[in-house]
Amino acid sequence: MAKNNGVDPRFAATDDSAVQIDDVKLSLEGINLMLNNGFRESQEIFDKFKRYSPLMSSGWSFVTFMNALMTYEEDKLDAAMEALRETEKLCLPKSGGFMKSLRTKMIRGAGSGSGKMSSEDRIQRRILLADCQLYMAMLIFSRQEMTGILRGGWLVRKGYKIYEKTYEEISKIYESRGHPMLANPGMVDKNGEAASMEPPTGWVTRRS
């Protein structure tokens, strides 16, 4: 069998929209490769499918971000910031890139008869969006400029607020299923101490 210059045949196609993939499984594979010192292989996976879905775009920008922090080269720091901004735009509601990313999923799920975004998809995109805010804040903090520190602090707060809103939505979903959760946790308690991050009592998800 002929080899394709060492490139995995799954990524040999030139148009990622023409390939059907399990983005959850593939993104996990890409992150595992990165964590096991396979940056090049991980980058190849995410570069190929970065426009397939917000999840794949998030994996691509995260790998780019980690590579920038490890090398601390100016051009890679800039590239990481641009990658995170691209993922941010893809996760924002009512953006052209976001709707484009849904086409393949809507075609695959045509039997549902509805183009309305599910709660799971909406929550996933909020979390990815909040992640982008924090990663961008870290890049800005790394520049050690006063204006950067102020902007980075604003991004940290913005990201936390998105996490906070997402937690409230997840709490409502759990409560509707008979699994009450604790009230929205704060970053600090009323005494100024770090708030407890322990999970609620009885917060157990049953597997079928």
From TrEMBL:
Q: What InterPro entries does the record tag this protein with?
A: IML2/TPR_39
Extract the Pfam families matched here. Answer: Iml2-TPR_39
Instruction: Give positions of region: Disordered.
Output: 186-208
> Which GO biological process annotations does it have?
cilium assembly
Protein name per its UniProtKB record: Putative tetratricopeptide repeat protein 39C
On the tree of life, the source organism's domain of life is Eukaryota
Query: Which organism's genome codes for this protein?
Result: Stichopus japonicus (Sea cucumber)
